[in-house]
Amino acid sequence: MSALPRNVTPSTELIEVRWLRSSYSTGANNCVETARPSAGPWAGLLAVRDSKDPHGPALLFSPESWAGFTRAF
Questions:
Q1: In this structure, which long-range contacts are made by residues 53-57, counting pairs with CB atoms below 8 Å and at least 24 apart in sequence?
Q2: Residue 9 near residue 39 (C-beta atoms within 8 A)
Q3: Nearest Cα to 46, choosing from 36, 57, 56?
Q4: Confidence category of residue 4, pLDDT binned at 50, 70, 90
Q5: DSSP H helical segments within 1-73, as ranges?
Q6: Of 21, 54, 52, 59, the residue nearest 37 (C-alpha)
Q7: Predicted local confidence at residue 17, as pLDDT
Q8: Strand, helix or coil at 36?
Q9: How far apart are CA 68 and CA 71, in angstroms?
Q10: Contact by Cβ (8 Å): 32, 19
Q11: How far is the C-alpha of 52 from the C-alpha of 32, rounded, in Å?
């Protein structure tokens, strides 16, 4: 079994996801957006992308990895 990629290029390959912006975002459009794919090979992972580049890549994290990252900051 091969490991899943750690990013999706472009993030538009994640179909039928709802991208959410951080509640800490400002009007300067310098934030990240997250989505939780519910189907396909990325189901159960958390996708993160740059809000300024919605057609660019998305990084993929396990829920545990993302929780650890957000707790650290």
A1: 54/11, 54/12, 54/19, 55/10, 55/11, 55/12, 56/9, 56/10, 56/11, 57/7, 57/8, 57/9, 57/10, 57/11
A2: no
A3: 36
A4: low
A5: 63-72
A6: 59
A7: 92
A8: coil
A9: 5
A10: no
A11: 8
